[in-house]
Amino acid sequence: MKTYINPKWLCVFVLSLFQNCSTLFNLPINSEKSSLGEITSYTTELKNLPQPKEKIVIGVYKFRDQTGQYKPSETGSNWSTAVPQGTTTILIKALEDSRWFLPIERENIANLLNERQIIRSTRQEYLKETDKSTQTLPPLLYAGILLEGGVISYDSNVMTGGIGARYFGIGASSQYRQDRITIYLRAVSTLNGEIMKTVYTSKTILSTSVNGNFFRYIDLERLLESEVGVTQNEPVQLAVTEAIEKAVKSLIVEGIRDGIWGKAVEDFTKYKSLIDNYNNEETINSGKVIGNKFPNNYRQKFALFADIEGQQIKGDYVNPNWNVGGKMGFKYFINDHLNLELNANILKLQNENIFTRTYIVSEINLEFMILPKYKLTPFIYAGGGTLSSKKSNLYKAQVGGGLEYLLDKNFALRISSQYDLGFKDTWDDFVNGKRKDQAIRIAFGVNFYIGKK
């Protein structure tokens, strides 16, 4: 007897599912009121800077997008620009927030001069009888420093990647894309045209998506399919704002350090902490490479490592048990990618109520680091080794791979798996079939790098 689902209850279930998913992923289901614009971390830092003795009058004629970059599109041409066109306004807002500068209108100076001319003409026409001194407009402020530069680069898909899996009609996946903008800002003296200081900042723009799906035949004529997902794109405007604010802060600090702000800065002691922090940031940044890479010397010439392993025999008996073992060893880096590894470890093989044996193992491996300059890198390795016990001495080969993540200059975490391939079928003292005895290991460990490149 077949059971049929009432369509009304199916609709209620589906609507409930979407409502719950909406809550789960925080998807907007109602319109939102307008609000004040978001601030970045550097907005707060600018507002909290120690103040100068007097503000510096500064002019900005043009700080524009110089990339000519259009938004990337997978469906065809897209004539929308990748970078907001109001970067001059963003820069002026950053200058105001810092409270170091007194920005004056220069981007639309023609509008300002026209309006002043209208005021002057109106006064001459209708105030002929009054004192001429009341008709004179005060002079415009002039800037001792001009700011120039702009957004000079927008690089799409600097890094892309993802991960996913599907089993028995149920799957999930995640993808990410990273773009990058670059900004240059320079201060120019209006007295002699000297370029007093140039700073350069960059900011990555991250886009991520998470998706899940279900695809399965309920019976011969019924197919059930469902999908759920969420995508999040970092706003380009906020990324540009953050990069510009960082550039303004860098300009202020480097100007204090190099003494270009003149009488605006007198007591350097109150800026000492600010300058020290900036110098430290420059030191750390000196080895930075695009794509979250680290300098060559972050992975040094030698490394000591230790692993804790889960081990299981793949032999001739049934009911193999998982056991805990350990491994310690030494690595010598031939070059950035390739290293030679020597290690010693304990391998315990056990089948429940049938067989137990512990081997002392020594191995030699050749390991290949796929992305040695990145903080997170996959690696693969292969080699040979010996197994020693009271009853026998055996030989084997092994292959493995995993991931390594650098926590700091010398310390890294590793997760890996290894497959041991025996040359004989006598690891468990039982010969059965053509397949040689094998073992699988899953390890978690640490690397400690020493020495210099």
Automatic annotation (TrEMBL):
The answer on whether this UniProt entry bears the keyword Transcription regulation reads no
What the entry lists under Gene3D superfamilies is as follows: 2.40.160.20, ABC-type transport auxiliary lipoprotein component
Organism superkingdom = Bacteria
Instruction: Cite the SUPFAM superfamilies for this sequence.
Output: OMPA-like
Q: Which Pfam families match?
A: CsgG (PF03783)
Entry keyword set: Cell membrane, Lipoprotein, Membrane, Palmitate, Signal
Q: Name one GO cellular component term.
A: outer membrane-bounded periplasmic space
State the name under which the record lists this protein.
Curli production assembly/transport component CsgG
